[in-house]
Amino acid sequence: MRTLGILGGLGPESTIDYYRSIIARVRARRPDAGYPHIVINSLDVNKGIAMLDRGQLNELADYLVSGIELLERAGANFGCIAANTPHLVFNEVQRRSKIPLLSIVRAACDRAKALGLKNVGLFGTGFTMRANFYPEEFQRAGIALVRPSPSECEFIHRKYIDELLKNQFLPQTRTEILRIAQRLKDEDGVEAIVLAGTELPLLLRDSGPQIEFLDTTVIHVEAIVDELLR
């Protein structure tokens, strides 16, 4: 089996979720294949957020590239970034990487297209919701992306930074984010919500049938396991 390099820590809880999920999917799909070889380089999420707050995208790209280079030296054949927001600079990081990287954005778009979706909502950090990397990818596939209102984006962002990244998953936060999802469904006609933040599924999984969520962690993991087992 090939060696996967995970650039994690962005944040830590979702990196743990990636590891567990990859192991579980390999077991389910190839019970006799053994365990995958995985190298994890856990970066400092606070350092990354500080760069984003200051608009230092070149510095962020340098930080991620140095992390990928460590995975390369550890023997990874391919890699992934276990987070959505760093995909702000994904193209630059991939250009400078010696190993191929699997994009969570491309994987999510492929899943939405396979499901025949045409109008979806977008939840994530404020950095992700304000950026164009998700809308541009989905637009090429003929899928419209609807962002929450500015006040709703600010609420989701603050809860993401102040709670989710600190391993706090509070019922009242879950209730309010589900209310925002329902509003997007009722008023904007979204068919599903892209959980474009890998901590969001930890809060919202098993939340009921009222609206479909595209869990980018699960989607990304499936693409990673495809590559591990090919």
Write up what this structure looks like.
This protein folds into 2 domains: 3-103 and 219-229, Rossmann fold (3-Layer(aba) Sandwich), CATH 3.40.50.1860; 105-216, Rossmann fold (3-Layer(aba) Sandwich), CATH 3.40.50. By secondary structure, it is an alpha/beta fold. The model has no long low-confidence stretch (mean pLDDT 96). It contains 11 helices and 8 strands. The chain is 54% helix and 16% strand. The radius of gyration is 17 Å and the shape is globular. The chain has helices at 12-29, 45-53, 57-73, 90-96, 104-114, 126-130, 133-140, 150-162, 171-188, 200-204, 216-229; strands at 3-8, 37-42, 78-81, 101-102, 119-124, 144-146, 192-196, 212-215. The strands form 2 sheets. Strands 2-1-3-4 form a 4-stranded parallel sheet, with helices on both faces. It has a 4-stranded parallel sheet with strand order 6-5-7-8, sandwiched between helices.
Unreliable residue runs: none
Structural class: alpha/beta
- Counting structural domains, the number is 2
Shape: globular
Determine the fraction of residues in helical runs and give it as a percent range.
40-55%
> How much β-strand is present in the residues?
15-25%
- The residue-averaged pLDDT reads 96
Radius of gyration: 17 Å
Topology order in helix (H) and strand (E) letters: EHEHHEHEHEHHEHHEHEH
CATH topology of the largest domain: Rossmann fold
Main sheet makeup: 4 strands, parallel
Q: Which CATH C-level class of the largest domain is it?
A: Alpha Beta
Q: Helix tally?
A: 11
The CATH architecture of the largest domain can be named as 3-Layer(aba) Sandwich
| Order of the strands making up the biggest sheet | 2-1-3-4
How many strands?
A: 8
Through-space gap between termini: 8 Å
